[in-house]
């Protein structure tokens, strides 16, 4: 039986922790944390959403949880090992040398969520790096007996997924060779990057943004990027580029524009400052099954943390897609 405790998000939010044992990457005991949104007096529903965060991120977006609950979904979010609630002293934030290691907590989270909704269907959703981790895992799930549908998954919503390495083409060719070489022998060596806080400033309430979150878990300038972690990312992206078969329909939301800048301007508020949106559009078709791609005018990297107008458009697109998904006759989805 799963034991739930109060979560730091306050009333209506609870968490449970899975101990995963010794870290295969040598950083001590690791855990994963599952958060649920269950307002006082609410009873378990018959369908759910499971959300996975990105890099330099964790779950704090209560408005996302509340939106899905308004649509009739119980909401759950997973803080992966070494991220947010799950990071322990001495651990390198987000560090893994193989994205397949996340299968342990993803399998557990899916099983726990399904148990919470009486075996009902689960809709998956993820942001940025989570938008690479989830499809890779789901492709492996779909190769198991019964496939993704047999595992209870009905669909996938990706919010600015990280499908390719941004930057000039030589970064993806010669740069990837260097990443693989260094990442194999010095996996915790950090890449040298300029200290840019523009994206963080557009988000955090104390720096001109709209949102309140823990700057220890989501620093304005982001966490350092290690060669070993980036090597794992490039390996996964190469697999995605060859084509996946996730076994369920997907909705991909992204900004309409990319704007890289080391200084804040008004454009910083209305574009993706992190990823190249053209790459998202290019590789979205590699997910397999039916894929719907929607660019959102004026959206930020995290589409659901955009200003009010593009944020509302994004949620409207989600609701329309969910209505379509329900119309496909997925068992129990509309129950």
TrEMBL record:
GO MF annotations, alphabetized: hydrolase activity
Serine aminopeptidase S33 domain location: 46-259
Keywords: Hydrolase
Hydrolase keyword on record: yes
Coiled coil: none
Any Pfam family the entry gives: Hydrolase_4
PANTHER family tied to this protein: PHOSPHOLIPASE-RELATED (PTHR11614)
Protein name (Swiss-Prot/TrEMBL): Alpha/beta hydrolase
Originating species: Rhodococcus olei
Taxonomic path: Bacteria, Bacillati, Actinomycetota, Actinomycetes, Mycobacteriales
């Amino acid at each position: 039986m799963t034991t739930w405790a109060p979560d730091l998000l306050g009333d209506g939010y609870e968490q449970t922790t899975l101990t995963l044992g010794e870290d295969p990457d040598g950083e001590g005991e690791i855990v994963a944390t599952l958060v649920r949104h269950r307002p006082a007096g609410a009873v378990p529903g018959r369908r759910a959403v499971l959300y996975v965060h990105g890099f330099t991120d964790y779950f704090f977006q209560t408005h996302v949880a509340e939106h899905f609950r308004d649509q009739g979904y119980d909401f759950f979010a997973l803080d992966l090992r070494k991220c947010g609630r799950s990071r322990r002293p001495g651990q390198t934030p987000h560090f893994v040398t193989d994205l397949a290691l996340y299968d342990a907590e993803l399998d557990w989270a899916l099983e726990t969520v399904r148990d919470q909704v009486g075996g009902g269907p689960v809709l998956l959703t993820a942001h940025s790096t989570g938008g690479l981790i989830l499809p890779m895992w789901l492709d492996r799930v779909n190769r198991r007996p019964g496939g993704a549908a047999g595992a209870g998954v009905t669909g996938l919503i990706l919010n600015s997924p990280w499908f390719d390495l941004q930057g000039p083409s030589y970064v993806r060719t010669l740069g990837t060779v260097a990443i693989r070489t260094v990442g194999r022998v010095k996996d915790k060596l950090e890449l040298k990057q300029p200290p840019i806080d523009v994206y963080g400033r557009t988000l955090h309430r104390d720096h001109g943004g709209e949102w309140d979150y823990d700057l220890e878990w989501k620093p304005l300038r982001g966490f350092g990027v290690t060669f070993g972690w980036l090597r794992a990312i490039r390996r996964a992206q190469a697999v995605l580029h060859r084509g996946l078969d996730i076994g369920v329909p997907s909705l991909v939301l992204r900004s309409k524009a990319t704007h890289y800048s080391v200084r804040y301007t008004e454009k910083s508020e209305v574009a993706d400052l992190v990823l190249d949106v053209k790459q998202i559009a290019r590789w979205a078709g590699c997910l397999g099954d039916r894929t719907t791609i929607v660019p959102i005018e004026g959206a930020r990297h995290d589409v659901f943390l955009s200003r009010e107008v593009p944020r509302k458009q994004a949620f409207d697109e989600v609701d329309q897609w969910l209505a379509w998904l329900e119309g496909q006759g997925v068992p129990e989805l509309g129950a």
